[in-house]
Amino acid sequence: MSEKQSTVNLDAAAAGDGQSYAQRYTEAMIPVFGTPQRVLVRGEGVHVWDDHGTQYLDLLGGIAVNTLGHGHPAILSALAKQAEDLVHVSNFFATAPQIELAETLLRLARAPEGSGVFFANSGTEANEAAFKIARRHGGADRPRILALTDSFHGRTMGALALTSKEAYRVPFEPLPGGVEFLPANDEDALAAALAPGDVAAVFAEPIQGEAGVRPLDPTYLQALRLLTREHGTLLILDEVQSGIARSGHWFAHQATDGVVPDVMTLAKGLGGGFPIGALIAFGPEVRALLSAGQHGTTFGGNPLGAAVALAVLGTITEDGLLDHVREVGDRFAESVSALADPRITEVRGAGLLRGIGLSEPIAPQVAAASLEAGFIVNAPNPSTIRIAPPLIITAEELGTFTAALPGLLDTVLANATEGA
Ligand SMILES: *Cc1c(COP(=O)(O)O)cnc(C)c1O
């Protein structure tokens, strides 16, 4: 346990009317997330603590968000310093952090002269802006938009229209039209779909996170770039989860030669926990697809969020985290493979975005058993355990989970046999 004390005594607060936090959550919240398994009160580095004082190794990082872990001094000082100067000003005004962040992102994205940035507050909003850009490209001559099977682009209506999972989409139809889903990694299907020349854009995640951490084949990603360019279609890469050094590259697509998107969307790791999203339009033609008055946001690009994001990007650079992520990520994947456990089929992904494939659909139970054992992971689908920890995590810390994994699988399978 660390010495750091929480400012709020949640146990005392919970005792107030004799109700548990679980009960109060269930009564006060709209139940879209189900019942959370723990109430967390504080964090430090790669650890968090619940309201009973139990410590957890955070291997999920708020779903690829807590880039620098919890309570990182660079984030704390950026928050404090910027809050003293300006928290928010509206987009009638510019601020230095916003301009610097845009310039930094353009540089890291290796965007050509004439490119531009739009700031939002979340991944889904960044994708809404991308959807608008797609609609503006080609107008009535290009009514079609392509997305991939197993895609996840967010929960607002436009981003949802691009998300393949029917359970998410169908209850909210009609959604914005014109979207078709293509099987991922199928070049022939892609070529056929683009051939008529009436497709405005293709949306793709270089690593499909919610699908269970499934990277696109590099050859498919290259074909996506070549074929979209050939047909005048925009390539829109959603790097909301895979971006910001998560893969060991600033952006996951940079691992594949010759792939530069027309649009890239970002969020999750960008603010290290502060909500901020961004869209980068590559080159002057794409940038010009949104003109003054065609899009907007009240909070997007506020100086507080921009200052924190600059601190995140600066720390990744100064601390050499790109190399670190590649090194510890590869070591983790190798060590899990080296377990040679027949219940583990593969380790997918790159850097510190990894999916551990299981031979049986027991991932939710394994995630629950992991939590009991002091590890936060999740199950994006029934047969995958995902880890997306803070990028500052060490190989030794990751090794504690690798070592525990066979025992966790034993526990879950023993319970399943007992229950049968
Ligand atoms: C999480 C995610 C989104 C949605 O981001 P929100 O901030 O939850 O709106 C979009 N695309 C991808 C690839 C994501 O992983």
Automatic annotation (TrEMBL):
The lineage of its organism: Bacteria, Bacillati, Actinomycetota, Actinomycetes, Micrococcales. Binds 1 pyridoxal phosphate per subunit. N(2)-acetyl-L-ornithine binds at R155, T297. Its EC number is 2.6.1.11. This is Acetylornithine aminotransferase. Gene3D superfamilies: Aspartate Aminotransferase, domain 1, Type I PLP-dependent aspartate aminotransferase-like (Major domain). GO terms for molecular function: identical protein binding; N2-acetyl-L-ornithine:2-oxoglutarate 5-aminotransferase activity; pyridoxal phosphate binding. It catalyses: N(2)-acetyl-L-ornithine + 2-oxoglutarate = N-acetyl-L-glutamate 5-semialdehyde + L-glutamate. It is found in: Cytoplasm. It comes from Brachybacterium muris UCD-AY4. InterPro entries: AcOrn/SuccOrn_fam (IPR004636), Aminotrans_3 (IPR005814), Aminotrans_3_PPA_site (IPR049704), Class-III_PLP-dep_AT (IPR050103), PyrdxlP-dep_Trfase (IPR015424), PyrdxlP-dep_Trfase_major (IPR015421), PyrdxlP-dep_Trfase_small (IPR015422). The keyword Amino-acid biosynthesis applies. Belongs to the class-III pyridoxal-phosphate-dependent aminotransferase family. ArgD subfamily. The keyword Amino-acid biosynthesis applies.
